[in-house]
Write a structure and sequence with these properties.
Length: 343
């Protein structure tokens, strides 16, 4: 295995002298999903970004952002986060020997992400506010103090994340007809679009937001975003314009899915494809199941679709256990176990 920077350095934004801070991210599985293909009537693949070292796609951007920060002589990194960016920033900061601080909305991040950020030694600050409030504050802090802001407003994050599009095209031998992706702060859809364009391709992009946190669908910021998919509980995406450019340019669209649709897709994927992603990730599949793959009038329907599963299901055991069937308790006895297994 090699680092993402070693594989793609000539196409990334690093300076020649920058060190490589890596956990061997990228090269994630692209899994053909036969049952999902049947339901959608189109060949479907799952790009399982939960396979990254900290369990989400954030690592692709973080390796580049933290390597560049080291090159610039930074001593600390900071971010606002719904959880995954925090976990990733904390891990890469630890790897680089930098200090890390992460600002998260109090009580609103999945427990696995919190455990990661704390274990990697970041200072974790729980803000009495939402992600949008936290992002506003860290942007100001980064202006006032010598800390590197590693949210996706950092251009190097987008550079690293675009490599997922390279991988998809390399692995399929061509671009897929379409790509479905959950949208929160809108950095990732921006990154995929850049990556696809850099290799001369333009699959239809379908973006999905949670109904209670769907500013791009509604056309205005949402003051109090709410959704079970805590990773995408965002009311005012930083990369709003770029995301809309990606949807328009790819002849795709952005639509909303309800929390129930998200949770149904989340469970269905785990039980029928053997792939356990976090709730926000399942928005990509939920969206296709709810809305199909609509195309513009003069556009041929796509023959294949890649669903980006942005983070690992183990990040959020609380939501999983809240939705899963009960455990069967049993006496320490052969026949009791027999009944428990076979009845
Ligand atoms: N899926 C997951 C699992 C995420 O953690 C995020 C964003 C998204 C999708 C949306 O990606 O923001 O680029 O549109 N999580 C950020 C965080 C905001 O702080 O971890 P996006």
């Amino acid at each position: 295995m090699t680092s993402l920077i070693e594989r793609y350095r000539d196409r990334l934004s690093l300076e020649p002298g920058d060190p490589v801070v890596s956990l061997e991210e990228g090269s994630t599985p692209l899994i053909e999903a036969s049952r999902l293909s049947e339901r959608l009537g189109v060949r479907a693949y799952l790009k399982f970004e939960g396979g990254n070292p900290t369990g989400s796609f954030k690592d692709r951007g973080m390796t580049v952002a933290v390597s560049r920060a080291m090159g610039r002589g930074a001593e600390a990194v900071i971010c606002a986060s719904t959880g995954n960016t925090a976990a990733s920033a904390a891990a890469y900061a630890a790897r680089a020997g930098l200090r890390g601080a992460v600002i998260v909305p109090e009580g609103k991040i999945a427990i696995g992400k919190l455990a990661q950020a704390l274990m990697h030694g970041a200072r974790v600050i729980a803000l009495q506010g939402n992600f949008d409030d936290a992002l506003t504050i860290v942007r100001e802090l980064a202006q006032k103090h010598p800390v590197e802001l590693v949210n996706s407003v950092n251009p190097h994050r987008i550079e690293g994340q675009k490599t997922a599009a390279f991988e998809v095209v390399e692995e399929l031998g061509e671009a897929p007809g379409a790509l479905a992706i959950p949208v929160g702060n809108a950095g990732n859809v921006t990154a995929y679009w850049r990556g696809f364009q850099e290799v001369g391709t333009a699959p239809i992009l379908y973006g999905f937001q949670a109904e209670g946190a769907a500013p791009l669908v509604e056309g205005h910021p949402v003051a109090n975003p709410e959704t079970v998919a805590s990773a995408i509980r965002i009311g005012n995406p930083a990369r709003w314009e770029e995301a809309m450019t990606a949807f328009t340019g790819s002849r795709g669209r952005v639509a909303a899915v309800s929390d129930d649709q998200i949770l149904d897709a989340y469970r269905w994927l785990a039980a029928n494809e053997g792939v356990f992603c976090e709730p926000a990730s399942a928005a990509s599949v939920a969206g296709l199941l709810a809305h199909g793959l609509p195309v513009a009038e003069d556009t041929a329907p796509p023959e294949s679709v890649v669903c980006v599963l942005t983070g690992h299901g183990l990040k959020d055991p609380d939501t999983a256990l809240g939705k899963a069937p009960a455990v069967v308790n049993c006496d320490n006895d052969l026949s009791a176990v027999e009944r428990a297994v076979f009845d």
